[in-house]
Write a structure and sequence with these properties.
The protein has 76 residues and is α+β, with helices and mostly antiparallel strands. The chain has a single domain, classed as GMP Synthetase, Chain A, domain 3 (2-Layer Sandwich). It is built from three helices and three strands. A three-stranded mixed β-sheet has the order 1-2-3.
């Protein structure tokens, strides 16, 4: 899941070297924290949050396939 999220995020931003993904397990679900450069935060969130929403849907689908629950937090 982490590799998938990293792949998608790096293709969305202008500075792919600054993409960092941390994961931790809380209350029986995986929490992924996506950190990007400040100039790329808008690209990851998207207009009206549509890109962020799509990323979360994809992450939930990949997690469900593995029988897990996952949440995405975007940190600037």
């Amino acid at each position: 899941m982490k590799e998938f999220l990293e792949f998608v995020a790096k293709h969305l931003v202008d500075q792919p070297d600054n993409v960092v993904i941390e994961s931790e397990e809380k209350e029986q679900k995986l929490v992924f924290k996506l950190k990007v450069a400040e100039t790329d935060v808008g690209k990851v969130i998207g207009r009206s949050g549509k890109t962020a929403s799509a990323l979360r849907v994809l992450l939930r689908a990949v997690a469900a396939k593995e029988g897990k629950r996952a949440v995405l937090d975007i940190v600037g």
